[in-house]
Amino acid sequence: MLLKPTLDDARRIAVDLGRILAVVAGAGLIPLAWAIALGEWKPAADLILMIGVAGALAGIAEMWRPKTNTQPVWGHGLIVVSLVWLVVPAVGAIPLALSGHYGDLIDAYFDAMSGLTTTGLATIQDLDHLAASTNVWRHSLQFLGGQGIVLAALVFFSASGALSLYEAEGRDQRIFPSVGSTARFIWLVSVVHGILGISALTIDGVVAQGFEWSRALFHGFTIFMAAFDTGGFSPQSTSVGYYHSASFEAVVAVLMLAGALSFGLHHAIWQRRAGLLRNIEVRTFATTVTVTLFVTLTGLAVGGLYTETSPLLRRGFFQLISAHTGTGFATVSSPELARWGGLAFAGMTVAMALGGMSSSTAGGVKALRIGLTVKSVLMTVREALTPSRTVISRTYFQYGRHRLEPDLAGSVMTVSLLYVALYLLGAAVGLAYGYGLAESLFESVSAAAAVGLSVGVVSPDMPVVLQLIMIFQMWIGRLEFIAVFALLGFSLSVVKGR
Amino acid sequence: MLRRLRNAAVALLQGAYGITAEVVALAAMFAVAALIAFLLSQLV
Fold first, then answer.
1. Does a structural domain hold residue A456?
2. pLDDT value, residue A160
């Protein structure tokens, strides 16, 4: 925490923010190349404007460097990260707002925030006729947010403040001793999954759906980015349901799962490390996926919406994996999803709230926190039930045995409770606007846990206050609270002048 | 050059192994949940 922020603190934060904006400007070159190749000149001009604004802000920040050589601290990283997720959507929304597919600026900012936080909720109108290059930019925002703009900046600007930025983003598992090699490994995992995933989706597009190679590649590329980064944006308004292909859905399901696994686990699998099945995060995630899948399938089976087994299993499985990994792809329409009701709806909502693994692109409470909370509660109960002289081992296994210290248990439960409070906040606002309890809670959890599934509340006509609340939920949910609290503390310190 | 190609091939093979593990895990979770749900739906 920065108790006495100085002008140099602000300059240090601005420089880091500027460097990240430089990465955003660089990322804008990909859709720009796409626009030029396809002759989409208006979207190209919009993208050039966005690149210019991001580049200019980065240049100004670079000129405003700190006068003294201050070392960045933990608080700097937290504040930079929380500002990144506010400023980058504003810059990234420029091509969206100018595309003519959004009702107002808030809609464009909402979608840019949704993309960057890998949520996937959308208020875009007439998506099916959006220019391909603008669509690529929407998906690039998800890829940037998922891979972590900060992480990209670490690779390109291996500055002395790298570690504090990396930790502030919530990616607290250092796979290698240096941040640079950890970042490179994360990119390697993404690139390898990209090569294999885009190839599989493209081939499926050509073979199963009769697409031309260029069209199949476009769909494979955009769907891969949204699946592996658990984002959920789709180039078509009917999401993955557009493809009507079981094999396509199977590939997407694997990519969604891969995106929800921690990069530490990817490393452990690649290195064939022993003890993976004892890992608390693996056990928790496997258990919650199986249980919520079971609840959802049972709900669908007894609900009677689907009379045949095959569509029931296919839709239930895909939607649950999409919900639990925080992706938000859909093979059923919003009105159809709203009709699931009862147990199936509850299974989906709980799956969204739980989320994926830590150090992944998924949102939600996260498997590690759930596992540690359950473990802590069980140990407390065992201590209460056994004689006072009995020693209960308070340990857990995650790439080695660790002690479950009271401090750790306390902080895990605090963040978990904050997520529950965030879910209830959005639900309460939804209720105030007259939506039903189930749909208000579903939509609120979907936004706060960065999922992106919708039963119809999120639309271009949604109330502005609810839209702003959801922007807040996406922002604070993605940053897992602490970085936002640091920004709040910094702002208060500036105002109070202490 | 040869070493870089070899490293790239190793990374791709490791990735393919990882994806195979992901497919197996997904299939196992699906099989368990679907089996229990099917049995339960027969009882209800």
1. no
2. 44
Q: Pick left, alpha or beta for residue A480 (phi over 0 → left; psi -120 to 50 → alpha; otherwise beta).
A: left
CB neighbourhood size of B31 (10 A): 11
Query: What is the per-residue DSSP string for A68-80?
Result: S-PPP-HHHHHHH
User: Is residue A330 in a domain?
Assistant: no
Nearest partner of A90 among A76, A67, A75, A108, judged by Cα: A108
Q: Is residue A136 part of a domain?
A: yes
Tally the domains of chain B: 1
Q: Is A290 on the interface with B (CB under 8 A)?
A: yes
Cβ proximity of A252 and B26 under 8 Å: no
Asked if residue A167 lies in contact with residue A74, where contact means CB atoms within 8 angstroms, the answer is: yes
φ, ψ at A397 (rounded to 5°): -110, 120
CA dihedral A105, A107, A113, A114 (to 10 degrees): -160
Q: Domain residues for A60?
A: 1-172+465-498
| B1 to chain A, closest Cα gap in Å | 18
Q: How many domains does chain A have?
A: 1
In a domain? residue A116: yes
- Position of tokens 């509660």? A377
pLDDT 10s digits, A335-363: 999 999 889 999 999 999 999 998 788 88
Give the three-state DSSP class for A304: coil
Chain A positions in Cβ-Cβ contact with residue B25 (cut-off 8 Å):
257, 286
How close does chain B come to A294, measured CA to CA in Å? 4
Site from B4, B10, B13, B22 to mutate, A interface, most A CB atoms within 10 angstroms: B22
First to last CA, chain B: 64
ipTM > 0.85 (yes/no): no
Residues of A in contact with B19 (CB under 8 A): 193, 196, 254, 258
Each residue's pLDDT tens digit, A237-287? 999 999 999 999 999 999 999 999 988 888 888 888 878 888 999 999 999
pTM of the full predicted structure? 0.89
